Amino acid sequence: MTNPEPDNEITREDLLQRVALMETMIAEGRSTTAHYGWIFVLWGLVDLSGMGWQWLQPHSYWVWPVTIGTGFLIQIAAVSLRRKTGEFGDRSTRSRSVQAVWSMMALGVSLYCAAAIVRHVTWQISYVAAILMLVGLAHATSSVILRWQAQAVVAALWWAGGIASFFLPGMYLYLLVVAELLFGLVAFGLYAMLMERRRAAARVQHHA
Q1: pTM to 2 decimals?
Q2: What is the per-residue pLDDT across 37-63, written as a single tens digit (0 to 9) for each?
Q3: 180/193 Cα distance (integer angstroms)
């Protein structure tokens, strides 16, 4: 007698297809992060420029508003230019999730920094530590979504810096932040850009 119930058993082929789909989505997510590698480099250089300016003019209240505002203008102009050239196509769910993580982190940190600048409390250790921990959180979340060990290492560096900031005096704290920006933003961004360049070269060879 025929069984009227549908066969819901998952075959080995179905499992392989699902695994392949997950791997493809993860690869697309990493590719998206690599595609935005220049933004990590941009903000690393912007923040380093602001710190250098503040070192030369420690009592200027215009250092960070001008620096951050300039960074946003450069990013908006670069994104607009890339959209016109058609570099931003449809992305996978993982890609959009990672983009949402970084967008909300950037918004939260911007609001946090703006409030601290208005209240003139940017000299406090807790202010610096909170920023390091928030950036590390975005890296960690992204690394979990994309299963990317390299980004997990970067997240650990940001968190380690956030914890260490409570124990380091004056000049060492300044050097710690410089190191975090160099390795956690600029170096990671360059690494991501290199990955994107290699993927682009591989795609060209594949279609040749």
Answers
A1: 0.78
A2: 899 999 999 999 999 998 888 777 788
A3: 19
